[in-house]
Every structure is written in C-alpha cells, then in structure tokens.
Amino acid sequence: MPTANVAKARRGDKRGKILKAAEKVFAEKGFHLARISDIAKEAGVAEGTIYIYFDSKEELILSIFKEKIGAWIDDLKRKLSSCGNAREKLRVVVETHFATLYNNPHLAQLVQIELRACSAFMRGGSAPEMRRYLGLIEEVMKEGKETGEFRSDFDEWLAARALLGVMDEMATIWVLKRRLELPAIVDAVVDIFYKGIGGA
Fold this sequence. Notes:
CATH topology of the largest domain: Tetracycline Repressor, domain 2
CATH class of the largest domain: Mainly Alpha
Largest sheet: none
Radius of gyration: 19 Å
CATH superfamily of the largest domain: Tetracycline Repressor, domain 2
Number of strands: 0
C-alpha cells in the first residue's frame, strides 16, 4: 500500500499531467471549443478524473495561468537580483516577458488569446498574480527614480502598466500574425520606453 507521501506525489503528477494536456488543447482548439473530454483524452485519464481536481474549464485555465505566471515571476526575480542597475533590470523585464512567450507557443496562445475568452479571468480571477508581476516592474521603476537613472517626475504605478501594455500588444501581434520576432525587438522596446522615462 502506498504511503501518504507517495499517494500525494501521484495525485500531484496526475494533476500536472491534466494541466499540461489542458494547455495544449486550449491552445489548439480555443477555450470555448475545447471540451473536458478532449483534455481527458490528451491527458490519458478518464473524464471523471478531471473533475476530482478541477470543477470547470474556467478553473482549469486559471490554474494553468497561475502556475505558469508563478514560475515566470520566480524566474524574473532571480534574473533581476543579478542586475547591476535599473536600466539593465528594465531590459531583463522585457527580455524575460518576450522569451517566456516566444519559447512556449501554447502558453503564448493561452495568455494572449484564450484567457480573454474566460469570464472568470476577465473578472479578476488572476488579480493576485498580476499584482505580483506588476509589483516587480514597479520596483524597477522606483529604483530607477531613486538612483537618478530615470526621471523623478513620473508615476511608477502608471509606468509599470504602460510597459505591460506595450509588451502585451507586441506579444498579441506575434501570436496572431507572426509579423515580428519577439526576441528581436527587445532592445527597440526598451529604448523607446527608456527615452520616455530616462534621465537627460
């Protein structure tokens, strides 16, 4: 008979397998057209098994986002901790944002397109995670103001959301039309944005 720890690990493995399958199915079929039965088939589990872990498609897609953004934030924090100044940190924010999506096409499709079809997401279902992410960007803005690398007369709360808006728009264009390569525009985005908030 398996121990409690082994049983817990197996449950975690199965949950992870379902989330991975759901990410693929949502990206390929779209949130509205994807069915729980499609996800079960992709995961190699019974349809009823999915409902042991998740109550609905909405909970599934939000769970994917929360896990992915959590890892994304942790990765960004590690990278920022080794940066020497605020401008370098600004570049790392943009580079990490674009690279995370560019290197994970299913995640990019989910984040840029399919999540917006989920009413729970649009009602703020991922608000805590987004506050954490924006908080990191705000810290970079604040540091740049304090060190004199950036102007002192802008609102870091507003600037963080403006930068996220630029990154989000570029990522959406890439997902929908593939007219640009996200890694290739990192420096251009940083340069344009920095000239708006940088010092003389």
